[in-house]
Amino acid sequence: MGALAGATGLLAPGERWRRRRFLGAASARLAAVAPVVIGITGSYGKTSTKGYLARLLDPGDGSVFATPASYNTTLGVCRALNEGLRPEHRYAVVEMGAYRPGEVAEICRLVRPRHGIVTAIGVMHLERFGSRHRIAQAKAELFAALPEDGTAAAPARVAERETLAARIHGRAVWVGAPGQGLWADPVEVTAAGTHLVVRDGDGLALPLTCPLVGRHTVLNLLCAVAIARACGVSGEAIAARARDLRPAPHRLEVTTVNGMTIIDDAYNANPEGAADALELLAGLPGRRRVLVTPGFIELGAEQEARMAELGRAAAAVCTDVVLVGPRHTRSLRRGLGDAGFPDGRCTVVRDLEGARQLLPSIAGPESVVLFENDLPDQYREP
Question: Is the pTM of this model over 0.85?
Answer without folding.
Answer: yes
